[in-house]
Amino acid sequence: MKVDVLALFPEIIAPALHTGIIRRVQEHEKLNINLYNLRDWTTDKHSTVDDYPYGGGAGMILKPEPIFAAVAALNPTSDAQILYLTPQGTPLTQPLVEALSLEAHIIVLCGRYKGIDERVRDSLVTKEISIGDYVLSGGEIPALVLIDAIARVLPGALGDYESAHDDSFSKDLLDHPHYTRPAEYAGIKVPDVLLTGHHENIEKWRHAEAIKRTAQRRPDLLENIELTDEEVAIIDESKVNQN
Ligand SMILES: C[S@@+](CC[C@H](N)C(=O)[O-])C[C@H]1O[C@@H](n2cnc3c(N)ncnc32)[C@H](O)[C@@H]1O
Question: What gap in Å lies between CA 215 and CA 217, rounded to an integer?
Answer without folding.
Answer: 6
